[in-house]
Amino acid sequence: MVEKQLICSSCKKRITNDPGSVVFNCPNCGKSELVRCSDCRKLAAKYKCSECGFEGPN
Ligand SMILES: [Zn+2]
Ligand SMILES: [Zn+2]
Fold it and tell me: How far apart are alpha carbons 22 and 33 in whole angstroms?
């Protein structure tokens, strides 16, 4: 059994059993995978792509 360890791109919190979390590719370059936990989605916390430096959400 392989469990993928996801870490929120904004707050660096480990995501375990967070049904409100999302994983998506950078909307700008599409190269890096961005992770947001439910807290950061609620707060609309910023995330930054490690590949291109794109900052969201917007
Ligand atoms: Zn977070
Ligand atoms: Zn990017």
Answer: 10
